[in-house]
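Quick start: what a row looks like.
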Amino acid sequence: MGTVQKPVHIAGQDFTDAIDRCGLPLKLDTPTQGDGNCWVRAVQQQLERPELEQQLNSRTRKVMSVRKSERYMVLKKSIAEFATSSQHPTIIRVKESFENEGQGAVDGVTWESHCRKLARDGEWSDELMVQATAWFTGHDIQLVMTTSTPEEPFKIFRGNLEDSEKDCLGLPLWIGYQNNIHYQSLLPTDEEVAYQQPEQEGQNNKILREEKECPASKTQRVETVEKDEKKKRPGDKIPTKIRKKKANRIEGEAEVKKAEGNKKPGDKIPTKIKEMQAAQKEGGEAVERGEMKIKPGDKIPTQIKKEANSKVKRC
């Protein structure tokens, strides 16, 4: 009877090195199978994260309702179909760019034929498939490259069809990528800042639950989203550890500026010189105070003063 081999990570050390190098609060998920479908398999692993359960849209929920072993292919076909059937202006604009000046123009293929190819079992996914996945799921995708740097720890593919500059509501999907080789699902190990500030996350989760129980609360949710969008600052989706490092650096710079503002002339003069200058100043002040009390004859040598006094007595 043969032994069952445990799955191993493809380029696992490369992903771990990138995570450590960039200071990301992430770890490797269970190995993502590398069979030409690793992109959708990694996405499936992300969508199965418990904390995302209440944040899935109806399209994604439908995919996740099928048998687990079939999900990756259902997801792959559903994403490709969505990209070709949607009439949303954002997708139409990207489609026209692809066919007129992008990869489609270079390869002489249409948007539809390329998407049908991407839907095949074993067909490797490209950047178009990654972006289409973000649109389909309605979640931002944060791709950690094995070549990532602390200055650019991950690449973001936003799933917001209405405004490509704004983040999606909800947690992002974390996936590692080794160029032209493999995609690997990653898991957060630390607190992750999603759509709102940390102190507002509980309220956000409550809104999601209420909408599920009562569709009428959707209007209230939209108003809350619009209100909080105004409060959102750059970096809201950066993991906590990175934000703490930036905060410490900014705080340090502020302390330096504050100290600079309190400096007085002579603050940088070495202590010895400062002590000598202080002594000279003190001596000068003493002399000035003494000069005010000097009387005629105070500076005449003592011997001359004695002789002068004796002459006065004789007279």
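That is the whole record. The chain has a mean pLDDT of 76. Residues 12-190 form a domain with the Cathepsin B; Chain A fold (CATH 3.90.70.80).
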